[in-house]
Amino acid sequence: MAERIPIASDHAGFELKQHLSKALAELGYDVEDLGTHSPSSTDYPDFAHPLAEKVEQGEVKRGVLLCGTGLGMSYAANRHRGVRAAVAWTPEIAELARKHNDANVLVLPARFVSEEDGVRILRTWLDTAFEGGRHEKRVEKIEATGHTPAEGK
Ligand code: RB5
Predict the structure, then answer these.
(1) Where are the alpha helices (DSSP H) in 27-131?
(2) Crossing angle for the helix pair 91-99 and 115-127, nearest 10 degrees?
(3) What pLDDT is stored for residue 151 in this prediction?
(4) Alpha carbon 113 to chain centroid distance?
(5) How confident is the model over 80-114, as pLDDT tens digits?
C-alpha cells in the first residue's frame, strides 16, 4: 500500500504545494492535501497544527508544510510532541535534516525556492534515511525539555 503523506500550506506556499502534490503523486505516494485550497490569505498555524497532529498521533510517519519563509510553519509544527519539522532550502540541508535530525516534517520556504529546487529538496528528504548512531541520543534529548544533565555525564 502506498504511504500516505499529508501536505499543507498557507497562501504563500499554495502554488508550490500544488506542484509538489503532483510530484508526490507521480512518485507513487498517497497524497493527502490538507489545504489551503486557494491563493487567498490564510493563517499558517491553521494548517500546520492539523498536519503535525497526524504525525504526533502516529497516524502518518511524515508530512510536508510550506509557507513564505518556512518559519511560521516550523514554529507551529514543532510545538507537537515527537514532531521534528525542518526548514530546508537546499537538498543538502534536507539530507542532513534526515541523516542527523530524523526530520519527520519537511518545511519549504516557498518564496525562496523554485519549483525545480522544491522537487529536488522533497525527493532528497523522502529518500534519505536517519543515520542513528551518535545522533540517536541527541534526537531523543529534544523531547527532554526542562532537564539539563550535569556536565560530563
Ligand atoms: C505570509 O505572508 C507569510 O508571513 C507566511 O507565509 C510565512 O512566511 C510565515 O512564517
Answers:
(1) 45-56, 71-77, 91-99, 115-127
(2) 20
(3) 60
(4) 15
(5) 999 999 999 999 999 999 999 999 999 999 999 99
Distance of CA 79 to the CA centre of its chain: 13
100 as an active site residue: the answer is: yes
Mutate to test the pocket of ligand 1, among 10, 14, 17, 41 (most ligand atoms within 8 A of CB): 10
Q: What's the mean pLDDT when you consider all of the chain?
A: 96
- pTM here? 0.95
- C-beta atoms surrounding 146 within 10 Å: 4
- Residue 11 falls in the annotated catalytic set: no
Q: What is the CA radius of gyration of the chain?
A: 15
CATH number of the 4-141 domain: 3.40.1400.10
pLDDT of residue 147: 61
Domain ranges of the chain: 4-141
60 Cα–ligand 1 center, Å: 25
8 A C-beta contact, residue 103 and residue 125: yes
Ligand 1 binding pocket (C-beta < 6 A) is 10, 12, 44, 67-69, 71-72
